Amino acid sequence: MKHMNSEVKEERTSNKKRIDLFLVPIVLIAAFLNLFKIWTDEYANAYYTAAVKSMLQSFHNFFYASFDPGGYVTIDKPPVVFWIQTISAKIFGFHGWSVILPQALAGIGSVLLLYVLVKRTFGVWAGRFAALAMALTPIVPAVSRTNNIDSMLVFTLLVATWMLFRAVRTAKFGWVLAAFAMIGVAFNMKMLQAYMVLPAFYVFYVVATKITWKKKISFLTTATVLMLAVSVSWAVVVDSTSADKRPYMGSSQTNSVLELAFGYNGINRLTGNTSVTGSSHKQPAQTQQQTASSETKQNSNSSADSSQSSNQRKSSSSQKMQAPGGGNQNGMFNTGNPGPFRLFQKGLSDQISWLLPFVIFSIVGLFAGVKFKGPYTTKQKESLFWLAWLLPVAVFFSIAGFFHQYYLIMLAPPIAAFAGAGAVALWSMYKQHNGWKSWLLPGGILTTAALQVYIMSPYVSSIGVAPIAGVGALGVILALVLAVHKQRKNSLTNYLGAAAMVVLLAMPAYWAMTPIIYGGNSMLPSAGPDSSSGMGGPPSTATNSKQSGFNGMQPPGSSSGNSSSNNQMQPPSGSSNGGQMPGGSSNNGQMQPPSGSSNSGEMQMPGGSSNNSQMPNSSSSKSSSSKRKSGGMNAEVNKKLLNYLTKNNTGEKYLFATTDSTSAAPYIIKTGEPVMAMGGFSGSDPILTVSKLKAMIKKGEVKYFYLSRMGKGGQSDVITWIKENSKEIPSSKWQSTSSSSQQGPSGNGTLYEITLK
Q: How do residues 409-428 score in pLDDT, each as one tens digit?
């Protein structure tokens, strides 16, 4: 033990004098994967980008994270990450890349933090390999290249981890408080998801600190109280503010931050329940495609167009693979079916699970010989921390009813940490011929290569047979040769071990580059040859010019010259969709048009949207554009409609009102003018009543209403009243008839005007 501590101390002293030259290329790789070509994503996730545009206009909007400049409704998450994005936009100007930049830097920062955390205890090579594994975990750069929250969340939790480790090393209570306070800050990024690491923090502090139980309980209790206070600080301020003096809390049913935190952004993720106009509906992941949550609607708005969806369905049926234990793997939005092998199913495994078998072997090796009652070494204590992070999060994703693929970034730090620490530990056991433990290294290499072949198999049509066969063959050969040479002491084994690590990281590295190669999806980021589709399934072979997203969407007022009956998904007669996809049905996580509809290459959604990121081999002229408008909402606006609304505005606060934020976001981004999303993001928030709307109209706050032909969400009474008491504006005055008009949200709608005396 003294010898180990002496080595760690010497290494720390040595590293203070020089830069780790092996770390430099790892950081450069992370920088390339996270930063390269982010400037081509012109609008990022338009829902959040519109909020940043609004938050730049006033402190009121900034504090509440208002979606619109008028302060009508907030976005569906707490404000901390969007405060940072707004500051970035203030410094560098309002661009897609300026709101993505903080998350990209956070992704790079996470790689560096993991290096520091692992190196101190497990050695410099463990730190290097952990950092490289983190950088090459496909979902990490995929998320970090967007303005979604999760990359910043993981970075914040790793900062909290660094503080906790320092608290144990220095035995200073202040660092414990700082660590738990940082989790409270993370709560104000994505609410209960931040608490997923709490088991690791509690277990590690109890096991690692050498103080009395009385002090442990006292310190942890105090730190937890501080964490809760920081967590709810913003929520208490908002919920205690009069509703008429702040925006409505978006995606909540009671205009409450706390209800949003523990309902929609909390327990409902586990149960799969979503609130639709105030009522709860259970939607199991394996059977339901529809959901009223705004994030689900983001997914629907950034899915592939109808021709691609059709091809994906055909590909899915012909290439369908069964998960271990059987069962359909796709589930809702390709997050698989709940069960113990869910992380090995298609749609999730290629995002996060490339090294999971090696991690399992590493855990066995790191905990071999550990006695329950201790004493524990520092390596064993920190291994316990990463295990207590990994297991609860893995269990959650194995049973959760509703989440998206990019949430899996929460698993990246413990997997990378075990990959780094385990590589060094298993190599040491192998070289020292430690009985059965010496077989863990070749066993880990063999099983990991086998899993990677399984992961890549559905993508054979796009990546070819060669890489799949190569990984499988090399994995088997290297594992067998290492097994044969196990009793021999020569330099060959060193090269074999290094070669094995290269083989196991080769395809994750390629997968991590796919958002750069093929284009990403800023609303539902994922990695893979189909990364621009946001659906996470095997890629389509379609070459339609409208490849990514529902590119049949037209902006308000545009006309493609096609019959709406052929191009637009229609809600069931008389139904109120509550933010769900009308007519949608579950087919292995794929979008379906309503029965009997014509699949003419376009598919309309409520407040429909477009994602112009191109798939490979796309013949679209837009594929060569210098700006990529991913994110499910094309921020192009109908200029004729905008000119009409601007010219006829007589002092109204809102340029116009529409059912949901999908139609409103492009106009907010382009003009900075207030546009009212009457039902919040999905159109299902119970914000507006007929009496409130009458009052707003009488005050001269709004007079124009753009209503698409899609579902009414949770506002059927309001929309019915609008239609009964308004004047329809002839389409010739505001609707573009050019077939070359830019594609965007909410086509085939109607513009109404209401003036009340």
A: 999 999 999 999 999 999 99
Q: How far is CA 385 from CA 135, 200, 394, 439, 751, in A?
A: 21, 5, 14, 25, 57
Q: By the 8 A CB rule, do 102 and 399 touch?
A: no
Is the pTM higher than 0.85? The answer reads no
Please list the residues that pair with 578 across neighbouring strands: none
Whether pLDDT at 558 is above 60: no
Task: Report the alpha-carbon angle 605-51-95, nearest 5.
Answer: 95
The two three-digit tokens of residue 385, written as one number: 């921390």
- Other CB atoms within 10 A of residue 433 CB: 11
43-75 b/e (C-beta count within 10 Å ≥ 16 → b): bbbbbbbbbbbbbbbeeebbbbbbbbbbbbbbb
Average pLDDT, the chain: 80
Identify whether the C-beta of residue 116 lies closer than 8 Å to the C-beta of residue 124. Answer: no
Residues in CB range of 155: below 8 A, 6 or more apart: 106, 107, 109, 110, 113
Q: Could you give the CA distance from residue 461 to residue 538 in angstroms, rounded to a whole number?
A: 9
Q: Please check whether residue 141 is in contact with residue 190, taking contact to mean a CB–CB distance below 8 angstroms.
A: no
Cα 298 to Cα 45: distance, rounded to the nearest angstrom: 9
Calpha distance 101→115 (Å, rounded): 22
Long-range Cβ contacts of 725-730 (<8 Å, 24+ apart): 725/754, 725/756, 726/752, 726/753, 726/754, 727/752, 727/753, 727/754, 728/752, 729/644, 729/704, 729/753
Name the β-bridge partners of 273. 282
The span from the CA of 146 to the CA of 91, in Å, is 18
Q: What is the pLDDT of residue 204?
A: 97
At 48-63, the pLDDT tens digits run: 999 999 999 999 999 9
pLDDT tens across 627-648, in order? 444 444 445 788 999 999 999 9
Residues 6+ apart with CB under 8 A from 436: none
In angstroms, rounded to a whole number, what is the distance separating the alpha carbons of residues 141 and 34?
Answer: 5
Classified as helix, coil or strand, 209 is: coil
Please report which confidence band the pLDDT of residue 43 belongs to, taking 50, 70 and 90 as the band edges.
confident
- For residue 617, is pLDDT > 70? no
| CA distances in angstroms from 142 to 139, 149, 407, 458, listed in the order given | 5, 12, 11, 20
> 3-state SS of 686-747?
CCCCHHHHHHHHHCCCCCEEEECCCCCCCCHHHHHHHHHCCEECCHHHCCECCCCCCCCCCC
Q: Which residue in 47, 44, 69 sits closest to 653, CA to CA?
A: 69
pLDDT tier, 273 (very low <50, low <70, confident <90, very high otherwise): low
The H helix count followed by the E strand count for the chain is 29, 7
- Nearest-angstrom CA–CA distance, 387 and 740: 55
Q: Assess contact for 109 and 407: CB atoms under 8 A.
A: no
Q: Are 372 and 484 in contact (CB under 8 A)?
A: no
Mean pLDDT lowest for which of 26-35, 178-187, 588-597?
A: 588-597
pLDDT (tens digit, 9 = 90+) per residue, 516-530? 999 888 889 999 998
Q: What are phi and psi of 728, to 5 degrees?
A: -75, 130
Query: 10 Å Cβ neighbour count for 503?
Result: 22
- The arithmetic mean of pLDDT across residues 243-254, rounded, is 94
Write down the pLDDT at residue 747.
Answer: 54
